[in-house]
From TrEMBL:
The lineage of its organism: Bacteria, Bacillati, Bacillota, Bacilli, Lactobacillales. Residues 1-58 form the HTH lysR-type domain. The keyword DNA-binding applies. It comes from Liquorilactobacillus nagelii. PANTHER family: HTH-TYPE TRANSCRIPTIONAL REGULATOR BSDA (PTHR30419:SF28), HTH-TYPE TRANSCRIPTIONAL REGULATOR YBHD (PTHR30419). This is LysR family transcriptional regulator.
């Protein structure tokens, strides 16, 4: 069905005058008559009937008009939305990131990105979660890009041919201890020293669990796990109540009146974070612009300076 013919139909329904409608679209009356006749043949019903020297809608034509006007309006709004999304200065960016990145890195990136006047009309939709949740949203195209850990599988599905992981920045893993804990007298500790105390540990649903496990295994150490939790702020809460110590990403906004953060010196533990993209996913100009900005920002402020976040 020809959308142009539907536009002719809607306008003719309002004017009820062939010559006026033909003039409005800059076409001849025979061309308009042919278009309406073609539409009626496709539908198998008459849409107009003569009324003196003019025409008017039939009963079925009135019913059809309600749906076509609504449909054409949605098509126009869809066209406008696509044009807006494809505008590098007015598009929308759907960004997913892990909870820990919301304390410092992501707010700083957003602040610097939106500073130039040409970026200030861009809109963001944010999603937070653990790595598996974010990668699932990426595959479902609910996110344009995600900042998360590496994962070779989501459930039973391999990510190898579905997602691309670009190393972005390294996040320091620190020891969190209560302020009156024996280790609180130090500024740094070794991984071996940590095994002497009960640990509040990341659960297996966390993207950090396999990373921390790897460091213990590499040094032939076994963590003394007391509790397992998924979210770092919750783990910090347990530490503050002296229920154990923990290994956490460096959280700059963590209240250190009840918790002290210690560097881990032997070995230095870090968490590699990635910019994750879905393969063969169309990126709008705004998303591509933001992706390039993230990479350049992290390269300039962290990687070139050998800094951890």
């Amino acid at each position: 069905m020809n959308i142009r013919h539907l536009e002719f139909f809607c306008h003719l329904a309002k004017t009820q005058h062939m010559s006026q409608t033909a003039a409005y679209f800059g076409i001849s009356q025979p061309t308009l008559s042919y278009a309406i006749s073609t539409l009626e043949k496709e539908l198998g019903v008459p849409l107009f009937e003569k009324s003196g020297r003019n025409i008017k809608l039939t009963h079925l034509g009135k019913i059809y008009l309600q749906f076509i006007e609504s449909g054409l309006d949605k098509i126009k709004r869809g066209d406008l939305l696509l044009k807006r999304l494809l505008n590098v200065e007015t598009g929308t960016i759907n960004l997913g990131f892990t909870y820990t990145l919301g304390q410092s890195l992501v707010p700083k990136i957003i602040n610097h990105f939106l500073s130039p006047s040409e970026n200030q009309q861009l809109k963001f939709n944010f999603s937070q979660g653990n790595t598996e949740q974010l990668l699932t949203k990426l595959l479902d195209e609910k996110c344009d890009l995600a900042l998360a850990s590496f994962a070779d599988q989501i459930g039973q599905t391999s990510t190898k041919d579905l997602l691309t992981f670009y190393p972005l920045v390294k996040q320091e893993i620190v020891a969190a201890v209560p302020v009156n804990h024996p280790l609180a007298l130090k500024n740094s500790v070794s991984l071996r020293e940590i095994t002497d105390y009960p640990l509040i540990y990341f659960s297996k649903d966390s993207g950090l669990r396999p990373i921390i496990d790897k460091f213990f295994k590499k040094d032939n150490l076994k963590p003394n796990i007391k509790f397992e939790l998924e979210e770092d702020q919750t783990i910090a809460g347990f530490v503050s109540q002296e229920l154990g110590i923990a290994l956490l990403p460096n959280l700059p906004l963590l209240n250190q009146n009840s918790i002290k953060l210690l560097h881990i010196s032997q070995p230095i533990i870090y968490h590699q974070l990635y910019l994750v993209l879905k393969n063969n996913y169309f990126q709008t100009p705004a998303v591509s612009k933001f992706q390039n900005f993230i990479v350049n920002y992290c390269q300039t402020n962290f990687n070139q300076l050998n800094r951890l976040i």
